[in-house]
Amino acid sequence: MPGYRVLKHYETSERESLIAQVVSEVVNSILKIRLPPRNFIQETYIGGSDFKRDEPVLGLYHLNCIYIIRDLPDADLVRVTAHELRHAWQEQNQEYWSSFKLREYDADLFSREFSSYLGHPSGTQIAARLVTAYGMQGRELSPYIKDVLERRL
Description:
globular
């Protein structure tokens, strides 16, 4: 039974945080929900876990908070973030709570459709969109964002 430790903000990469942020905002333009807090987690087997699950997970919506396993490939990070946000929508709209299978089917379908809708973007494309959408050029840019902008030009 794996345990999971909630990571501090400085233990996650800027790339992951930016991708999850942009995906959350785009998903929210579709679902129109109160965005829950988002944290990254790490699987642990030796003590120090904040919570345990019966089977390994990539993401989890629990007590109005989204938890995403860190170091996922970009496409999986997009899909898992969208999936967990759909669970937030289900809770806020009281949909599908009578059936675990229906909840998971609905969230899986939404995350697949959302990835298709976006055209299965890479993390670089998502970060570039964030820079463009929010005009981050006016502040000190991190090395990751500078690299994204250089590749885009």
